[in-house]
Every structure is written in structure tokens, then in C-alpha cells.
């Protein structure tokens, strides 16, 4: 059942997207998408952590005893996140201040541990690394879309370049302040999920429970 | 999530010894990696924080340009103060004096008596660097003091700007902290900073009254004109700010220095 490498890399973009299909990593997606630059930086960081995390777990997968596998995976992931955080604080100080705790919280991002546990523990180094990169890119794709929408409608700018001039500066654009608040990310992600599932109906989950009608109830 | 490869590899033998060995090896390698990166990047981190310190000071000065005329760091009168006496020590170069390093060494620091340690610092340096903004007649327009104290989960560091009369606070600008985003971290937001724009620190009898109000209705108390509103949900952070100011303006902090400024008009 060896997928070809291209499929491993591209499947998590739409068909098996960690955010829109598996609904993982929502917390950070709400927090870092108020503007496009933080979304881009966060995407880059998550791709790196996923690629190296899955890769290293895969390398030592045959030596990890079953009983301590989760703690070993978390140790590797946590170390990678600390390293990335340190590098950001050194070379992207301003942006790292804005991302604040959310870089550190990648450790608890379900996508990273999920891929290590469900894929990297059972697949070779190349496939696991590609799977990590693919899932990172799938997460990034959604983050970038959400970040772009929120920054554009919330501030009238993209990557801090003012495109629409707000009314406060004499323009005709009224910024949507809701876009800068976390709930707007929920709405946008919800909209994206709806759109994808409309185009790919196979992603629609089966109804697990149906409400019983009064007639059924009385029987 | 469909399509995972079959669990083809045999699950390794699960002996305790093996689990321990693998766990320790992984921990050692990861620990080594993290340590090497942290140590290698430390000089860059320090430089970033120092740049941030200066940038925040420049922001404060720009915001107070109607009071202090000197707007750049170069125009400031930088001095090192002996905290115990309040006098200047001109042998120490303010540009290179490192208060954090001094506070960590026994020879250049002193333990803070527990009952006076409102800021939770345990030790402080014997000296502190200060900046004076002088006007056209060499009179002191603004006094800028570095203050620090323990917040909820980090050490808060800020510039405290006072009027030349040393009675009124003009600004409190945090340049380093690690408080919770959206809660304690609001201490560096403009809305909260604005409260420090014009605040009396001492009453007419010279008693230190400054602080942060923590309960509702506090605005009606006698201390109202000396206090700012706390931040909802950030009680521990604002208590930290309160303690920090009471410590640094108190007798173990800058009190002697401020008294000297008042009496001698240095």
C-alpha cells in the first residue's frame, strides 16, 4: 500500500486536509491569522516542525518501545519547537513577539503528534517527511487563506501594505472589526469546510445520530 | 483519515531496560540540541532585547515631547546612581553598566529584606542607571528610572518616567515581559499606558501612595488620585506592577535619589 510520493505530499492539501477534514489545529488557526504575515510565519514554522518531527520519529521508529512511544515523540517535537522558537526570537524578533505563546503551543498542536503517531511510526523516512511537509502545507493553505481574508477585510491591507484606505484616514473603506476577533476565523474556516465538502461530497460525514420523531418516541 | 500504510514493522520488544535506554538517549540528544541552540543564539537575543529597551525609551520620549525637549537617547543625561545614598557615581559608565549582571553578583548587589521585597526580586544591584532630560536652563524636566518586578509568570521590566519635581508619574512603559497574551500582556497596550500619563506618586506629606486599584468601586477611595485601574482577569500581573512601583519608589529603591533631586536640584 505504498502511495507514490507525490500523492503523499499533495493528498493533505485538499483531500485529507488536517484542518478542514480532520478539524485539527483549530486553536492556533484562530490565534495567528489576524494578519497575513503572522499566518505565513506560523505556516513556515509548522511545516518545519512537522517535516523534521515526522522524519526523526520515522528514523528511530524501530527502536521506540511501544510503552514510551508518545513521550518519545513529544520530546522530539518539543525540542524542535524550542529550537524554532529560539531561532525566531533571534532573527524575527518583532514577528515572534506577535506570535508570542503560539509558537510554543505548536507542541500541543494535534496535527504534529497525530502525524508522528499515525504515520511516521509505520512508514519510512522519505514518506514520513513528505507526509509531514504535506500536512504542514495543508495547514498552511488554510491559514494563509484565513489570514489574507481577515487582514484584507479587517484592516484593508495585505502584508501590511494598505490597499483600501479606511474612513478614519479619509477613504471610503469601513474596516470590519469583527475580522480581527477570533470568532471570524471560525466563520471563515466553517465557510471553507462547507465549500470543500460541496465540491467533494465524499468528505461529508455520515450522520451518526438522527433525531427521533414523536411517533418513534411513543412506540 | 484513510489510507495509512499497514503496520508492517514488528513492534519492538517492550522491556523496561530498553524503554529506559531509548528514553534517556532521546532525552540526551534533544537536550543537547536545545542547549547548543540556546547558547549559540544568546548574544543575538540579548542584542534584540537591548534594542527593544532603547526603542521603547525613544517611544516614551517621543510621546512626552511636549514636556522633555530631548528626544533622542544621545541628548539624555545618563548617570549611574548609588541607591543606598542617592548620589551619582561618576566612576561608572552608564553606557556599559549592566544592572542585571550586577544584581546577580554578590559583590555588586545586596539582598532585599523580605518585608521590603514588594517586587519579588530577592536581590538588587547597588547601583542603577538613570536618565535625566534637561531643559534649556539645565533644569531637570524628566527623570527616567528603570524598574522591574515579578508579574504573574515573568519578570516585568519597564521605564518609569517622572516629572522633574519627582512627584508626578508621566509614563510607565514596559519593554520586556512574558505575561499571558490578551490578559496580563495588556500592560503594554496604549489604553492602559494612558492611565500613567499624569499620576501623583506621593501625597503632600511625602508619603508614597501610588498603586493599582484592584477592586470595583476603588475609584471613590482616598487613594483614587494616586491609582490606576487594574486589568480584569490579570490580578496577579497588576499586583506585580503595584508592588514593583512601591518597591522602586520606596526606601530600598529610588527614594533617596528622588529626595536628593528635590532638595539639591542637581
| Rg over CA atoms of chain B | 24 Å
In order across it, which strands form the biggest sheet of chain A? 1-2
Q: Could you tell me the mean pLDDT of chain A? A: 88
Helix % of chain B is 25-40%
- Average pLDDT rating of chain B: 83
| Strands of chain A, total number | 2
- Taking the alpha carbons of the first and last residues of chain B, their distance comes to 74 Å
Number of helices of chain A: 10
- Overall morphology of chain A: globular
Strand content of chain B: 15-25%
Shape of chain B: globular
Global Rg of chain A: 20 Å
Element-level helix/strand string of chain A: HHHHHHHHEEHH
Percent range of helical residues of chain A? 55-70%
Count of strand segments of chain B: 10
Task: Please give a handful of descriptors for the protein shown.
heterodimer; A: 219 residues; mainly alpha; two-stranded antiparallel sheet; 10 helices; globular; B: 266 residues; alpha+beta; 6-stranded antiparallel sheet; 5 helices; 10 strands; 31% helix; 21% strand; disordered N terminus
Short structural description:
The complex is a heterodimer of chains A (219) and B (266). In chain A, 62% of the residues lie in helices and 2% in strands.
Molecular structure report:
The complex is a heterodimer of chains A (219) and B (266). Chain A is mainly α and 219 residues long. Helix content of chain A is 62%, strand content 2%. Chain A has ten helices and two strands. Chain A has a two-stranded antiparallel ribbon with strand order 1-2. In chain A, helix 4 packs across helix 5. Chain A is globular. In chain A, 38% of the residues are buried. The mean pLDDT of chain A is 88. Chain B has five helices and ten strands; from the N terminus they run H-E-H-E-E-E-E-E-E-H-E-E-E-H-H. In chain B, the strands form three sheets. In chain B, strands 1-4-5-6-7-8 form a six-stranded antiparallel beta sheet. In chain B, strands 2-3 form a two-stranded antiparallel sheet. In chain B, strand 6 and strand 7 form a beta hairpin. The N terminus of chain B is likely disordered. The chains are: A mainly alpha (219), B alpha+beta (266). At the A-B interface, helix 4 of A face helix 1 of B.
